[in-house]
Amino acid sequence: MKVYFANNRLQECFEDGRRAQREWNNAVAKKYIQRIQFILNTPTFNELRTIRSLRLHSLSGAMTGQFAIDLNNRWRIILTYDNADESVRILEVTNHYGN
Question: Would the pTM of this model clear 0.85, i.e. be above it?
Answer without folding.
Answer: yes
